[in-house]
Every structure is written in C-alpha cells, then in structure tokens.
Write a structure and sequence with these properties.
Distance between the termini: 77 Å
Strand content: under 5%
Helix content: 55-70%
Largest sheet: 2 strands, antiparallel
Number of strands: 2
Order of helices and strands: HHHHHHHHEEHHH
Radius of gyration: 28 Å
Length: 300
C-alpha cells in the first residue's frame, strides 16, 4: 500500500532529498554552552545515583553493627571477641564503600550531595554507640571526624590490611603520613554528628531495656572512678540537647528528633525507677510494658 505523496500548500509534490543529517556546525553561538550544561547535568545525576546506592549499603552495614552491639550486656568494658570481629568485618566493608565515593564528594560537592549522604548519620550512631559501650563516654565531634577519615583511607589500601577499632583509628589518624593526607577522605558535618547522637539515645534506651530484663539491674560502669548507671548518662545527654539552641535549616527534623529523644529518656527513667522502687517484688526477667504507656500518652 502506497504511503502517499507529501505536497505543499499549493498542491505541488514536495521534493524528497533523503534523510536530513545534523549539521556539523553549531546552530547558533549558544549551542556549545548548552551542550556543556547538558553534559554537566548528566554527570551530576549519574554521580548522585552512585552516591545514593553506596549510601544505602553503608546504612545497612551500620544497622548490622548496631544489631551486633545490642547483644552486649555490659558497658565500660571491651567488646567480646566475637562481637568485635563482627564489628571489624562490617567496618572493613564500610571503609571500602566510603573510599569508592570519596573523590566525588570533595569541596562543594560534599554539601551538594549532603541529602544523598544520609548514611553518615547512621554511621555516626553506630560508632558513637560502640564507643559508649566500651568507654561509657560520648566520643567528641573532632575524634569522630578522625575515625571516619581514617576509615576512608583504609578503604583504599589492599584487602590484607588489618582493620583497627575506633580507638586505634583515632591514634592512627593523628599520626598520618603525608601520603595518607593526600588521599581523598569524607568529612562529617555538624548535622551528621548531632543527628547521629540524637539517634544514639534510642539505641541506649533499647540497650538499657534489654540488659535490665536479662540481668535484673541497670547497666552501669566505673568510668572516671565513679559508679554511674545508664540512666544518669541518658539524663546528662538529654539535658545537653535541651540546652542547645534551635538549629537553623530543617526545623521540622530537629524538633522531631528532639521529641523522640525525650521519649527515650522518659522510658529509661521509668525503667530505672521501677527497678529501684519495686525491683524486689518482680521476678527475674521482668520488663515493663512501655507500649501501654505510649498509648495512654497518645490518647491524652
């Protein structure tokens, strides 16, 4: 069946010269500029997708580290050998993932892709939780920055290199060589640290609930020569956050995390008070039903 003949507005058949090829020269002086912008946007979207995929993997590994740490029953002590081995194995994988995206998040790109690097909040939560269990102290922002930078550098070394724990990483980062300093690293922002510590309060609450149910007493340590329970640590952490001024930027996220932290502190307080006041009346392994308290507060 014939496809017909194309005609102009006067009814004359149009001349067919074959397919038109794109001209080698630019259509106008602005074409090269827009082609450059197109290539830059394509590279941006590809880079963001790569960072997002790595971020999801790091988030999953960080959660696995936290799950392993929740099996510990004492604080202010070294981790059991099997738990330490699991943590080191996960950190080894995290270091390789961090090293794979470190060159792409240098300079302004570190803030440009900040939303894609939400994995750092989860990593901060895991590292601060591990440090708290071992030392019953909160690792500082500067110390944690050194740990993350050292993790990134270790991801670029051969696989037969031995992974060190957080304390050894801080010491190694402070004595880095000029060659190591030239290796691209990933830095933490203030928001990464603060929001990660916000989430730490939830893990401390779960840890306090589990250890109290299994051991019959609140987890405590002898850090600094003074016996201190996890209830006092939660009080102190919550008090410091209450004193902080409201941060500019994402106010909704700040208020939501602050409210969740308050609830975690209240749950640990109730658990500690029940242990002190009515602990002798309850059998070993008893744990309060905190969900019923949440329902009553929600109805009010």
């Amino acid at each position: 069946m014939s496809s017909g003949i194309k005609r102009d507005r006067h009814g004359n058949a149009k001349r067919f010269d074959g397919p038109k090829h794109a001209a080698n020269s630019a259509v106008n002086p602005y074409t090269p500029m827009f082609e450059g912008l197109r290539d830059e946007l394509d590279a941006h979207h590809d880079r963001r997708d790569r960072i997002g995929k790595v971020s999801r993997d790091i988030t999953g590994l960080s959660k696995k580290i936290i799950f392993s740490l929740q099996r510990v029953r004492k604080i202010d002590q070294k981790l059991p050998s099997n738990i330490q081995a699991e943590v080191d194995s996960r950190l080894s994988e995290v270091s390789k993932l961090l090293a794979s995206i470190a060159p792409e998040v240098q300079g302004i790109n570190r803030h440009r892709y900040a939303r894609s690097l939400v994995c750092l909040e989860e990593l901060v939560e895991a590292l601060t939780f591990a440090h708290y269990i071992k030392t019953q102290q909160l690792i500082t922002y500067n110390e944690l920055c050194l740990v993350v930078e050292d993790l990134t550098r270790r991801g670029a070394v051969p696989e037969d290199a031995v992974m060190a724990d957080a304390d050894e990483q801080v010491a190694a980062a402070k004595s880095e060589s000029p060659a190591d300093a030239a290796t691209p690293t990933i830095s933490l922002t203030d928001d990464d640290y603060i929001y990660g510590v916000f989430d730490l309060s939830g893990e401390m609450m779960r840890f306090a609930t589990t250890t109290s149910a299994l051991t019959g007493k609140m987890a405590s340590g002898d850090s600094g020569g003074t016996q201190r329970t996890i209830v006092e640590d939660m009080h102190e952490l919550g008090s410091f956050f209450e004193m902080l001024p409201l941060r500019t930027g994402n106010r909704k996220t700040w208020e939501k995390k602050l409210e969740v932290m308050r609830q975690s502190v209240q749950k640990v307080e109730k658990l500690g008070y029940d242990r002190m006041v009515r602990g002798s009346e309850r059998p070993d392994g008893w744990v309060p039903d905190l969900s019923s308290t949440d329902q009553i507060e929600a109805e009010e």
